[in-house]
DNA sequence: CATTCCTCCTGAGTGC
DNA sequence: TGCACTCAGGAGGAAT
């Protein structure tokens, strides 16, 4: 599932190829992927617009256009966004294909159809609710220890639930929440406010370290994730707990546990996480 | 306001 | 082999 490192990897790939290209056509196989405006509007009005750059907030990918509008794409669980210098490689899960005037294409595919595309003026970006209410970017200076310390203190939920809350912090999903808590040696079912000051500091560092390493590895390809060139990431080879139920903990060699926490399948080591 | 539950969707896995 | 069933999960919205 694409989380911050995967979306950032895709953004980085698109930044290399999209700026300067001009949309020529939009083919829509499943209009449900386009939330706003109506799919027909995108088909008639997007052609002629030129890409000026790319951006990302949390798991929201942004493609900026020369009329001060922006395409916003959220891949949710199984979405993929693949650029091709020629015709798109499509299957029954390809829902939208953007073509550029030079014959190149950008294909949006999504098995579970949870992924969403918006096209809005930059001035109306805050009408996308999930985007408007996002917490700080974990790798930016907006995210600092005193913020985490303050937020953790006032929450009654488990620390796993808090890490998954996009309003607390932008971009974490199920995989990295588990990996971060393992690195910080904190059990996911702990109440957020029960963490000691030292645990909060370990957590703060773990968030930034795990995300930075995952970006360096170009993301985690457990199942569906591919980068903008259709290539796999590498971080699945570095996972310590996620998807490793009953295997040995790399830190202490005890068996990894899995149970449901915050409604999500959650992986942890009862021996070295406390 | 904070939190929990339900919903969207399809493919993979399980049991019979 | 086929069928019914459960599970996986991001996030919006309803319910509590």
What features would you describe in this structure?
Its EC number is 3.2.2.23, 4.2.99.18. GO terms for molecular function: 8-oxo-7,8-dihydroguanine DNA N-glycosylase activity; class I DNA-(apurinic or apyrimidinic site) endonuclease activity; damaged DNA binding; double-stranded DNA binding; zinc ion binding. Its cofactor is Zn(2+). One of its GO terms (biological process) is base-excision repair. Belongs to the FPG family. A hairpin with a 4-residue loop joins strand 7 and strand 8. The protein is of the alpha+beta class and 274 residues long. Helix 4 packs across helix 7. The strands form three sheets. Strands 2-9-5-4-3 form a five-stranded mixed beta sheet. A four-stranded antiparallel beta sheet has the order 1-7-8-6. A two-stranded antiparallel ribbon has the order 10-11. The protein is elongated and about 55 Å long. It is built from seven helices and eleven strands. Helices cover 26% and strands 23% of the residues. It folds into two domains: 129 residues, N-terminal domain of MutM-like DNA repair proteins (Alpha-Beta Barrel); 124 residues, Orthogonal Bundle (Helicase, Ruva Protein, domain 3), CATH 1.10.8. The protein binds a DNA duplex (16 and 16 nucleotides) through loops.
């Amino acid at each position: 599932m694409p989380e911050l490192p995967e979306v950032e990897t895709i953004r980085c790939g698109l930044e290399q190829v999209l700026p300067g290209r001009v949309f020529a056509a939009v083919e829509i196989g499943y209009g449900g992927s386009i939330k706003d405006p109506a799919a027909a509007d995108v088909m008639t009005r997007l052609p002629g617009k030129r890409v000026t750059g790319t951006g990302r907030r949390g798991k929201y990918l942004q493609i900026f256009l020369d009329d001060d509008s922006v395409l916003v794409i959220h891949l949710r669980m199984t979405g993929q966004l693949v650029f091709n210098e020629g015709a798109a490689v499509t299957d029954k899960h390809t829902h939208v294909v953007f073509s550029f005037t030079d014959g190149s294409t950008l294909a949006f595919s999504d098995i579970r159809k949870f992924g969403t595309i918006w096209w809005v003026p930059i001035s109306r970006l805050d009408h996308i609710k999930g985007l408007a209410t996002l917490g700080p970017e974990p790798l930016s200076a907006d995210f600092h220890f005193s913020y985490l310390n303050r937020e953790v203190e006032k929450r009654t939920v488990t620390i796993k639930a808090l890490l998954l809350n996009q309003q607390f912090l932008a971009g974490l999903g199920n995989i990295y929440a588990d990996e971060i808590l393992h690195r910080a040696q904190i059990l996911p079912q702990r109440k957020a406010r029960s963490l000691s000051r030292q645990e909060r500091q370990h957590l703060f560092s773990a968030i930034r370290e795990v995300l930075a390493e995952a970006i360096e590895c170009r993301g985690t390809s457990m199942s569906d994730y591919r980068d903008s060139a259709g290539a796999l990431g590498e971080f699945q080879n570095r996972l310590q707990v996620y998807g490793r139920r009953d295997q040995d903990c790399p830190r202490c060699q005890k068996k990894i546990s899995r149970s449901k926490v915050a409604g999500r399948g959650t992986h942890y080591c009862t021996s070295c996480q406390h």
